[in-house]
Design goal:
single chain; 493 residues; 8-stranded parallel β-barrel
Length: 493
């Protein structure tokens, strides 16, 4: 095996519960175990970003910035890491450069040491500004490449992209396999070529959806991958990451021995096993392994979302048709990697194509914006007939999408007014206006989350009583894919 001890990034506090528990893990259920996590000796802990930002305000009544500060305060020996969607930050659209700059600066000030920056289309134009700002504020810039398979996603292109990102200033490169598509031998070859060409460390991230995750890490370890992402066993497997303890055990006594304490990991696992039981109603997605992710290239979370949406529309019998339509739409739209927000864009169009009985009869605004180039440059040209049907004679933009955006911070500050008590509050509003305003208004009233839940429950009961008294005709089925329901010891290389 090549290299010294394999280092591990723990994803339990971000991607694991985002994948398994609909991003519902509360800060109060993280706090009791943070000191144990800090004692493990992880390379880093991914504890912020992705869908956790808006979910904290939307579903939990929590301030995401306070979460970052609090976790940082408890992880005094471990670098804190976040997932940043490039120009999308933690949202689902592009934001102006001033918002990106201020967000990254405040994230750093609130405790983020490592920024894992990616773009759903692997369009480096959408990553460049975030990388520049993160570098300027003194953070570790981990440029991430979304891994997928298609006729245009080749080993040579992935390597060339990694070299380009290194030349742009990346401190490390991450291969982000968000669907669990990479096979052990594909990982071996990709890591082998990256290690031969790059001068910065290489990290590998995968999900267990296809059942290959641990084997993928073993082959990557053989050829010298520097770091891999795992989750504690009680929040691992299925659509989450491979389990930490299994990989640690398999490498014991080898040249890549992680040196991590299995007894300490077992204590953390027991804690999260008990904690997970409290969130059982949010369990969803793939139970175990689903190899259809390899056939249709659909992430596990996307599959569970599809099932939920079809069930709501009484169209679950069309499931296999929609499943088969997704890769067809993906090919026509230029083979985008299926990760937020492109997974929702492709999934929405595929569902509408099947349920309406005519392909592209209705095209959502997000799909039109994608075809116009407002999300970035697709990996391959969009099918000309599809583009013509969606845009007519209109031509897609050729510039970086954010170049068309006016600065947004001052406008957001003026709109939210005195509800904002900090720059962080203004940024929350700039990213998610409706969600943040509702959250900040509740905070201003001093309304607790428990009171909010009680009020919602009372409203639901009242509505049920009203429906029982008055017959209400059902509305026609419409299928939409929902967007969201993902100092001390320094960086070691």
């Amino acid at each position: 095996m090549n290299g010294g001890p394999l280092r591990i990034t723990d994803t339990t506090l971000r991607d694991a519960h985002q994948s398994l528990l609909a991003t519902r893990l509360r800060l109060k259920d993280m706090l009791p175990v943070l000191e144990l996590i800090d004692a493990v000796g992880y390379h880093s802990v991914e504890m912020w970003g992705g869908a956790t930002f808006d979910a904290a305000m939307r579903f939990l009544g929590e301030d995401p910035w306070e979460r970052a500060r609090t976790i940082r305060a408890h992880l005094s020996h471990t670098p804190c890491q976040m997932l940043l969607r490039g120009q999308n930050l933690v949202g689902y659209r592009h934001y102006p450069d001033d918002i990106v700059e201020r967000f990254i600066a405040r994230a750093k000030a609130n405790g983020i040491d490592v920024f894992r920056i990616f773009d759903a289309l692997n369009d480096v134009r959408n990553m460049a500004w975030a990388m520049t700002v993160a570098k300027r504020v003194g953070s570790h810039v981990q440029a991430s490449i979304c891994y997928t398979t298609s006729p245009v996603h080749t080993l040579d292109k992935f390597v060339a992209l990694a070299v380009e990102l290194e030349n742009m200033g990346a401190d490390s490169i991450c291969i982000k396999d968000m669907a669990g598509l990479i096979t052990p031998y594909a990982a071996f070859e990709l890591i082998r070529h990256l290690k031969a060409r790059l001068h910065v460390p290489v990290q590998l991230h995968t999900h267990y959806t296809s059942g290959m995750g641990t084997s993928v890490y073993l082959k990557a370890a053989e050829v010298g991958v520097d770091v891999v992402d795992t989750a504690i066993s009680s929040l691992a497997l299925s659509t989450s990451q491979p389990p930490t303890e299994v990989l640690v055990s398999m490498l014991q006594g080898s040249p890549r021995d992680t040196g991590l304490d299995l007894e300490l990991l077992a204590q953390i696992a027991r804690y999260f096993a008990d904690t997970r039981a409290k969130y059982h109603k949010f369990e969803g997605g793939v139970a175990g392994i689903d190899v259809r992710v390899l056939q249709y290239q659909i992430p596990g979370g996307m599959i569970s979302n599809l099932v939920s949406q079809l069930r709501e529309q009484n169209a679950l019998d069309r499931y296999e048709e929609v499943l088969a339509e997704v890769p067809r739409v993906r090919a026509e739209l230029g083979y985008p990697p299926l990760v937020t927000p492109t997974s929702q864009i492709v999934g929405t169009q595929a569902t509408l194509n099947v349920l309406l009985g005519e392909r592209y009869k209705i095209v959502p605004e997000e799909v039109k914006a994608y075809v116009k180039g407002f999300y970035g440059r697709p990996p391959a040209p969009i099918d000309e007939e599809v583009k013509k049907r969606i845009l007519g004679d209109e031509q897609p933009i050729a510039c970086r999408p954010a170049d068309l955006l006016e600065p947004g911070y001052e406008k957001a500050a003026q709109e939210i007014g005195d509800l904002a008590q900090s720059e962080e509050d203004v940024l929350s509003y700039a990213l998610f206006p409706h969600i943040a305003r509702t959250f900040l208004e509740r905070r201003a009233r001093g309304e607790s989350e428990e009171e909010r839940v009680a009020a919602i429950a009372a409203a639901i009961l009242a509505q049920r009583e009203k429906k029982a008294a008055v017959a209400v005709p059902s509305s026609p089925p419409v299928s939409l894919w929902k967007m969201a329901g993902r100092i001390g010891r320094r960086w070691r290389f």
